[in-house]
Amino acid sequence: MMLLIAATAVWTAYYTGRESIERDTVAIESMHGLAPELHIRNQQEYACLQIDRMDDVREYQCYLPPGHEYNLHLQWSQEFKLNDNSWYPEASVTLAAGKHQILMNEMPDKLVVSVDGAEVIDVPRKMPKSRSTGSTGVGYGFQSQWYPMDQSLTLLRLRESDNGTISDEGPGIALWIEPKK
């Protein structure tokens, strides 16, 4: 009798566990489309994806086409127009072609840019972090965006304001990539 009870208990546990695993596997497979993933549609154009995060870190996954070296530029203190690409890099780092993870951490007193897990730019903020911001660049989303090689890859143009009004011209932060000249 004890053997029959033990066998029934083992079989019941196995059956319910197997059913639960199959159900969970189907649910997980259906969620794969929701996970952000960088897709490259053309080896000769930029591909970029901004990952939505719940902190002050901006995360970008970028693909840079072969045949060039690239400069990742940061401008953080000079005046510039939000909708104009005439920026002047205040800090730069060279990137090789290929896939890269780029993080920009906006701390109250400094900006830190990391590439593939290594800090490459660490600069003091010229303006205190503001709650009033306006920005353009690679948008958040679950889909990659593609850009032709004949222009810079603008990751971020961020305008900050102390008075709550965002103007087209003034101090801010710009982060962009362009082929090395």
Write a structural description.
- It is elongated, with a radius of gyration of 23 Å.
- The protein has 2 domains: 2-33; 46-179, no CATH class.
- β6 and β7 (110-115) form a beta hairpin.
- It has 181 residues and is α+β, with helices and mostly antiparallel strands.
- It has a 6-stranded antiparallel sheet with strand order 8-7-6-2-1-10, with no helix packed on it.
- It contains 1 helix and 12 strands.
Taking strands numbered 1, 2, ... along the chain, how are they ordered across the largest sheet? 8-7-6-2-1-10
CA-based gyration radius:
23 Å
Number of domains: 2
Strand content: 35-45%
Number of DSSP-assigned strands: 12
Largest sheet: 6 strands, antiparallel
Q: What characteristic shape results from the CA principal axes?
A: elongated
Distance between the termini: 83 Å
Residues in helix, %? 10-25%
SS summary, helix count: 1
Quick description:
The protein is of the alpha+beta class and 181 residues long. The chain has one helix and twelve strands, in the order αββββββββββββ.
Question: Which features characterize this protein?
Answer:
single chain, 181 residues, alpha+beta, 2 domains, six-stranded antiparallel beta sheet, 1 helix, 44% strand
